[in-house]
Amino acid sequence: MGKRVVIIGGGAAGASAAARARRLDPEAEIIMIDKGLFISHAPCGIPYYVGGVVKDAHELAIYSPEEFAKERRIIVKINAEAFDIDTKNQVVLVREGGEVVKYQWDVLIIATGAKPITLPVEGHDLNGILTLRLPHEAPMLREEVERASTVAVVGGGYIGLEMAEALRDLGKKVLLFEMMPHVLPTTFDEDMAKLIHDELVKNGVELHLNERVVGFKGVNGHVNKVITEKGEYTVDKVVMGVGVRPDTELAEKAGVKLGETKAVWVNEYMETSVPNIYAAGDVAETWSLITGKRMYVALAPPANKMGQVAGANAVKGRFLKFPGVLGTAITKVFNLYVARTGLTERQAREEGFKPVSATIRARTTAHYYPVGVPVNIKMIADEQSGRILGVQIVGPDKIVAGYIDTAAALIGRGATIDDVFFADLSYAPPTAPVWHPLITAARVLSKGKY
Question: Which residue(s) pair with 277 in the sheet?
Fold first, then answer.
């Protein structure tokens, strides 16, 4: 009999860990426990279900528990809540169908993910204040907002923007509140965010920037007003999009150390501070590929890869290393694709770099080719070393994803302005101008060198 690996959480990291552990060790006994009804699920898809782009909430899961159990030979327990960890006896206690079941483990992987942040303000627990977490809850969320005519979205991060669009697609009046001066305040600079503001307003979103929500009022236990520092607004429902925090409750019961970001501390092997316990995904902290500093990023691609590393090392010892992240992300805001990687100019300054930046507007095709559209690119570099620190891109074409991925691959390898300028990128009139927009940005950033 091989090792017994118990995984708490069946989302991106947990499912990846289970699959990788099975691939590397055909003999291991692998048990995956999830308190939801779906596994290998995609919470990122919830706004698209709410807005009607995705027709069936079940499509938000990549595998059904049955498929996963059969194809991967993994014991899958859904609707099962792990509530305590006994590290001395290496046992997890799980509530399953009204009883408590104990699972012995040789290796434990904690992949409990993140949970939505709730504002500690008056009225925060009223009915009609909705959060996004698990895909099986998406139909209830959609049902709630379909009955509303005016919906407030609190928070101008990725989820807030995606939900604002989904609600406008349903014909709702949408008020978006963001306490900072611009949307995406931790991932974009203000000059690039202004392009997103224009798109939101153009599509009928009532934008309230620099406006902190300080409370909610209700009638008969149901929310009907949002209270901010500047006024009161009558609404039917509220969608919270103020971000997520790592769900560390179980990890703390196991006595594992939390890092400075308040997520679970892990090393490059995804080992926690407790022997034989690993953590991966949105519950764990990571570190920046640029500064090496610890950071917390709740995004699906790193979560999947952290899961792969944890699953491999759980059965093979120190087999894989996780290198860190850039926080590369993209989302769609009505007709714009907005993407970013690395540090913003403000973050670069805070991290002690002397940043220089160039912002350009370029076409996606040769100037004479008819379907091209303009894209806006901001590129940030360190003045002293010429190292590219970050890129932000806003434009109405999916090619934005290709640009940001190219930028991320280069930045992740420590590329300088020279490296980007001389990058051998492709050209054909229907697909790019002869001077690729990223190369043009590097050229402008070179201050006349090229």
Answer: 108
